[in-house]
Amino acid sequence: MIGGLFIYNHKGEVLISRVYRDDIGRNAVDAFRVNVIHARQQVRSPVTNIARTSFFHVKRSNIWLAAVTKQNVNAAMVFEFLYKMCDVMAAYFGKISEENIKNNFVLIYELLDEILDFGYPQNSETGALKTFITQQGIKSQHQTKEEQSQITSQVTGQIGWRREGIKYRRNELFLDVLESVNLLMSPQGQVLSAHVSGRVVMKSYLSGMPECKFGMNDKIVIEKQGKGAADETGKSGKQSIAIDDCTFHQCVRLSKFDSERSISFIPPDGEFELMRYRTTKDIILPFRVIPLVREVGRTKLEVKVVIKSNFKPSLLAQKIEVRIPTPLNTSGVQVICMKGKAKYKASENAIVWKIKRMAGMKESQISAEIELLPTNDKKKWARPPISMNFEVPFAPSGLKVRYLKVFEPKLNYSDHDVIKWVRYIGRSGIYETRC
Amino acid sequence: MTDSKYFTTTKKGEIFELKAELNSDKKEKKKEAVKKVIASMTVGKDVSALFPDVVNCMQTDNLELKKLVYLYLMNYAKSQPDMAIMAVNTFVKDCEDPNPLIRALAVRTMGCIRVDKITEYLCEPLRKCLKDEDPYVRKTAAVCVAKLHDINAQLVEDQGFLDTLKDLISDSNPMVVANAVAALSEIAESHPSSNLLDLNPQSINKLLTALNECTEWGQIFILDCLANYTPKDDREAQSICERVTPRLSHANSAVVLSAVKVLMKFMEMLSKDLDYYGTLLKKLAPPLVTLLSAEPELQYVALRNINLIVQKRPEILKHEMKVFFVKYNDPIYVKLEKLDIMIRLASQANIAQVLAELKEYATEVDVDFVRKAVRAIGRCAIKVEQSAERCVSTLLDLIQTKVNYVVQEAIVVIKDIFRKYPNKYESVIATLCENLDSLDEPEARAAMIWIVGEYAERIDNADELLESFLEGFHDESTQVQLQLLTAIVKLFLKKPTETQELVQQVLSLATQDSDNPDLRDRGYIYWRLLSTDPVAAKEVVLAEKPLISEETDLIEPTLLDELICYIGTLASVYHKPPSAFVEGGRGVVHKSLPPRTASNESAESPEAAPTGAPPVEQPDVIPPQGDLLGDLLNLDLGPPVSGPPLAASSAQMGAVDLLGGGLDSLVRPGSPCIGGTNFTSPPAAAVPASLGAPIGSGLSDLFDLTSGVGNLSGSYVAPKAVWLPAMKAKGLEISGTFTRQVGSISMDLQLTNKALQVMTDFAIQFNRNSFGLAPAAPLQVHAPLSPNQSVEISLPLNTVGSVMKMEPLNNLQVAVKNNIDVFYFSTLYPLHILFVEDGKMDRQMFLATWKDIPNENEAQFQIRDCPLSAEAVSSKLQGSNVFTIAKRNVEGQDMLYQSLKLTNGIWVLAELRIQPGNPSLTPLQLSLKCRAPEVSQHVYQAYETILKN
């Protein structure tokens, strides 16, 4: 299991060091600094073995988190734990920075003591942790016995993510379908790979222990129902989507999903990620990029890029940004664009073209002349792909929320009393067109 | 409030100041001081001097302060064991606290204080906490048992904690179950034999129920534990699989990977005909692909595991090629891993796409990545025949870019393509030759030289090209030198008229001016071959080469199976068994896949294990550097090793292809030896006398020099025999023999790596044996042993080891360890290696001793078919330290009286009766007398071996 956990700043100074196992000594702290943080080359692996000791690291801004072990640990678990650790810290004090870590080092030690025991990860749900690890420090005598046992039963219980007795005057929930659409397109416009990775994020402000059921236009479910009600298939069959794979928050009953494909759960209070999913079929690609790069002699490049929006004209895309890479030996760039603003950014080796808003079924164009310095570098310019960023108010996968039902048998509010909000946001993931 | 200020105090006298503050009456000041102490501890300052002062702060109601003090205690208790006792009372008291959080905190911290005296006090509170009413305390206590076991295993057993822990597996709270499982699994690892976890269908059922309810981490503990279980039949395997599959949809990647591990393992037991088998295969693909949208570090772990899964069960992901396409912004470690998997998944169906991608990658920035991409193109050509032409043209395009490392990498792979598809793509040679000057890496130079030599007849200026390399012959690496030698010999055989001078030049460079034995050996072989029979030489050197296989870099099947059992763990990331990177006894228990219970095993195996063919038949396409033919003919110039070349060396044939492949038949057992007579006699170590002489006349003299060199001082040495076949030792083959020379015994070993991975960290150990034989020095293998490479080692032995009588007497049990495993074998050593040099007895002494030893100790033997005269026998035996003391002629028979002494001081006296005249008819009569009659039999055997060889 995890033998120790260290946090370093960008210089390699130790901010937090917690050792869980006897086989990890103080020299491990230095070994990681010398061999990884101060290494001359770029990091070639997130797992490093130095003298039979394995180091797992992740980096958040310029903070290094390293887990150390001498055993054959579950590597996936160690990384999941490190991410979780970051989440927990962020939930307590915001951004993970050197200053915040130093300011909260006592708290971090307290957390580390709680969520890792002898290197075994324990309950690390912030909801539960915040009930008994507080920055003020609990004065034990102020708690009643019931409060104490409520805490412990939540920390260890089956529904470790929610405590009993939550009350809201207004029962309300928000569902955000957040998708990032990824594309890799050849210069000729052929889709090399495209997929949507989506998340359903829920914010719940519900009283009691509500039992929820979530439904979407999942092809398998629709087809199953279609067998029963034949008249509906024609209509809804088209709108259903094929989900390649999905994963759920630990509150979802997986065995029920596996047998009936129904998504039922008791939600944590507040915001959480209900599910993640991935689709690859029938994706609506909101934009198409058509590049044209011409080399005029050895010192000049002509670039023309057309973007076409491909969705309902009534919808508006926002925060559009097209990034056209330029060679390292660029000396000057002239840009003309019909819409938005374009700038050559020498430090980033790219022309960045920004458009605030763009409606569906439109197109826009940019052309640029790039002057090059003559070089005797034999190596050709690698022509990195043109990448794009945008945000659209629909789900490129075609996912639709069909229902989210709430039942709370003990309290007297029904599904109708809950105010529900649904929002779809499609963003660009890695959206690249080779040129 | 900001705590960062605690990090900034660096002035002198700090400890003193802190001491004052810690003893302050004000609570706030105390707390501040403890925080400062912890901050100093964090940055690595030694604040152990404050131990008593900090411990004094322990008695407090403030939980935050208490936790800080505990943190300090955990760090320093070990250095101040006596003072740590001071804390015990508080711990014991806290374990009784009404607040479960405090009870748990106390028992958790106590377990982390590794002081023997404290552990005694820990037992009682721990026993209570294990049965606490609050699950939070119980789950903490469960882990504490593992902690205590780590400090004092015996104590845990004596106190019966293990049984209590086992009971917790049936606890009503899932988290308690999960932690108990984790603790038991860890304890069980250090007791491989004990059936601690005692997994049976009932307990498995409990675990599966808890699996649905516990935290994500708990699910991981349980799944990892389940993976160690072996279901009793395929039905049970299936029912467990059914209950584990829902975990594949968990958001936590580690849960998913651990579930995959259980499924991959239990699938082994399911019949392929089952519908369920197919369903399961289909269910595995999507979650594996989803792992690739996780954070990069997890992607890396996932990709390393997918690499194993793809090798084990290619059918799972065969349609998912696209998801492994490299993204521009992927970290380099993700890119390289994706590339690996792409090559494994490449097939006729998707090759066009793959190639287009690879070509794209070859223009990227990262040098390692680009090289790997270029190499991948070559591997595609070799793997998918239909694509070979396209691959070659892609490679040619890349060569046109003139980017130095791209060109070199391309040439290396084109060489392999030529090997795979002879006489198909030679039209590109001209293009390759244009780039000769830009090659600066040995591998690329060697590849290019190979191409020139191989196709010398099609390259008009082949001689010029090779000659240009020859100028700097001695500055080249061995790889290039060997290749150049072979290439020029090939050239000579193809165009003998114009290149005589060149070949002489290279032969003399290789044999005369080089001190590299490999190079010299190869030079001599060619030289002799050319001089004795040019026709035979042609047949040998220009013989058709065996085809190379298409799969490369495959993990050896046994290792692969083991790694499948470690999916998700570090072992699967390193692609090494845990024993290779875990210290001590922990985690070195070997895991293996469960045997298939269904009947159709034979139909299954070829598909399930595409790598199942013996590794010997799968020479690497790209032989790793240094894997040269080294000791290919075992021409050991040191101690004279007579006898035919080893059967074992056929294993190295993979490497011999550098020679042109033709030599294979020379050494392959079973095939007639072409030059057998020449090669079996030990070649002279002498320097050829007539190097300038024209080939064909002067050189043949060389062979005459060989006679008479064979008998150096030293006893007879048997040819090496295979002691440990590769099959039994995960690809390590050991053959060897024993020698005795000038008073020292040694064990001559040849280690051959027939596995597909590099072997390192060799060590050897002997069991106790009859004569106390023991290694006098550690086993020195200087470089890691690459696949298909072998190494010769002479291990000096002494006889001062521990003695234990073995059966048979000369049995020696040996353990050899390498990075993969420890292997055991036993061998019989010939007794004559124990005959010491001062074994000559004085005549009088001999007579007295002979009479003194009772007659029942006399043993009679016959040695047949030994047509030697008395003198010859005497001198032969003398070479092995059997000394003739007197010779008499009695009734027309020669009587030899001999003595010998063993290393342990046992004298053996012998009377040998030889019938002169017709020794082939009448056997030699041997009478042995010894105070330890059990050695007689072995002495007789030694006589026989000495006399008959």
From TrEMBL, chain A:
Domain of life from the UniProt record: Eukaryota
Stored Gene3D superfamilies: 3.30.450.60, Mu homology domain, subdomain B
Pfam families per UniProt: Adap_comp_sub, Clat_adaptor_s
Record-linked CDD domains: AP-2_Mu2_Cterm (cd09251), AP2_Mu_N (cd14836)
InterPro entries: Adaptor_comp_med_subunit, AP2_Mu_C_sf, AP2_Mu_N, AP_mu_sigma_su, Clathrin_mu, Clathrin_mu_CS, Longin-like_dom_sf, MHD
Localization terms from the record: Cell membrane; Membrane, Coated pit
Binding annotation for a 1,2-diacyl-sn-glycero-3-phospho-(1D-myo-inositol-3,4,5-trisphosphate): K341, K343, K345, K354, K356
Major localization listed first in the record, in broad terms: membrane
Keywords: Cell membrane, Coated pit, Endocytosis, Lipid-binding, Membrane, Protein transport, Transport
Molecular function via GO: disordered domain specific binding; lipid binding; signal sequence binding; transmembrane transporter binding
Described function: Component of the adaptor protein complex 2 (AP-2). Adaptor protein complexes function in protein transport via transport vesicles in different membrane traffic pathways. Adaptor protein complexes are vesicle coat components and appear to be involved in cargo selection and vesicle formation. AP-2 is involved in clathrin-dependent endocytosis in which cargo proteins are incorporated into vesicles surrounded by clathrin (clathrin-coated vesicles, CCVs) which are destined for fusion with the early endosome.
Domain MHD: 170-434
Similarity section: Belongs to the adaptor complexes medium subunit family.
Protein's UniProt name: AP-2 complex subunit mu
Membrane topology note: Peripheral membrane protein
Gene field: AP2M1
GO cellular component: AP-2 adaptor complex; glutamatergic synapse; postsynapse; presynapse
Protein's GO biological process: clathrin-dependent endocytosis; intracellular protein transport; negative regulation of protein localization to plasma membrane; postsynaptic neurotransmitter receptor internalization; regulation of vesicle size; synaptic vesicle endocytosis; vesicle budding from membrane
From TrEMBL, chain B:
Superkingdom per UniProt: Eukaryota
GO CC annotations, alphabetized: clathrin adaptor complex; cytoplasmic vesicle; endomembrane system
Gene Ontology molecular function: clathrin binding
Biased composition (Low complexity): 598-611
Disordered: annotated segments: 592-625
Keyword terms, alphabetized: Acetylation, Membrane, Protein transport, Transport
Pfam families: Adaptin_N, Alpha_adaptinC2, B2-adapt-app_C
GO biological process: intracellular protein transport; vesicle-mediated transport
Residues covered by the Clathrin adaptor alpha/beta/gamma-adaptin appendage Ig-like subdomain domain: 716-826
Positions of the Beta-adaptin appendage C-terminal subdomain domain: 835-948
Membrane topology listed for this record: Peripheral membrane protein
Subcellular location(s) of the protein: Endomembrane system
UniProt cross-references to SUPFAM superfamilies, sorted A to Z: ARM repeat (SSF48371), Clathrin adaptor appendage domain (SSF49348), Subdomain of clathrin and coatomer appendage domain (SSF55711)
Family (UniProt): Belongs to the adaptor complexes large subunit family.
Protein name as annotated: AP complex subunit beta
Native organism: Loxodonta africana
Lineage, highest ranks first: Eukaryota, Metazoa, Chordata, Craniata, Vertebrata
